[in-house]
Specification:
Length: 231
């Protein structure tokens, strides 16, 4: 199925879900979810995934519906959460660029929510072994200065940082006045672009996300080098 954009009912479904977040309501509206959310999401996965593979051959994408595919399941895991709403009120599509836990490797990610839509590239979580390497690479002028230059260039191109600092202070072992103190406070690193509801309804959404992915290549390559792997 070709990707023609997400429909107005994609947003309409999420809007109604936000007022009716129950398994009973979803059971009555499952066919609508499939036509308004799942089907166009799967078309986007196949179309964007194929385009992305030409630029990033290691990208992983598929349309499995068991939680292992690119489209995140609508059901929430509420076992350890105070929020017992059973359903996610957003659409998340992830494209890992390496083996491993999806959020702990460099990724591209597409997101739809009532509060906004965006396309993201980066690494959403630095696990402990990666966090140590990240800090060392950021503090070292030979690798940290190029990272700062990459991020400045991305902002000049209209992309914005999408990960807030995880720490109030520079971590122990690094000077508080380090020239990249702000980056040393990060536990994740990613940039991206905000998208409007009109943007996600257009067939050229694939091309727009691909252009952002290509622009993000210097950051993705830096993250791979930091992780000790090849992009």
């Amino acid at each position: 199925m070709p990707f023609d954009g997400f429909s107005a009912d994609t947003i309409g479904f999420l809007h109604e879900l936000s007022f009716n977040n129950s398994r009973e309501w979803f059971a009555s509206n499952k066919a609508r979810y499939e036509s308004a959310v799942r089907d166009p999401a799967e078309a986007f996965i196949l179309s964007f995934g194929a385009a992305l593979a030409a630029e990033y051959p290691l990208v992983v994408y598929d349309t499995r519906r068991n939680g292992a595919g690119s489209l995140m399941r609508i059901y929430r895991d509420v076992r350890f959460s105070a929020d017992k709403r059973p359903l996610k009120e957003n659409v998340g599509i992830i494209f890992p660029l390496a083996p491993g836990k999806k959020v702990e490797v460099p990724i591209f990610y597409f997101h739809i929510e009532l509060s906004g839509c965006f396309f993201y590239g980066g690494q959403h979580v630095f696990p402990p072994e990666s966090l140590g390497r990240y800090r060392a690479a950021t503090a070292d002028d030979r690798t940290g200065a190029p990272l700062a230059a990459i991020l400045s260039e991305l902002e000049a191109q209209g992309l914005r940082p999408m990960e807030d600092p995880a720490y109030k202070r520079v971590p122990r072992g690094y000077p508080a006045d380090h020239p990249r103190a702000d980056l040393l406070r990060q536990a994740a690193l990613g940039f991206g672009v905000d998208l409007s509801f009109d943007d996600i309804g257009r067939p050229d959404l694939v091309g727009r996300c691909l252009r952002a992915a290509v622009s993000l290549r210097p950051l993705i390559e830096w993250l791979f080098a930091m992780n000790g792997t090849a992009a």
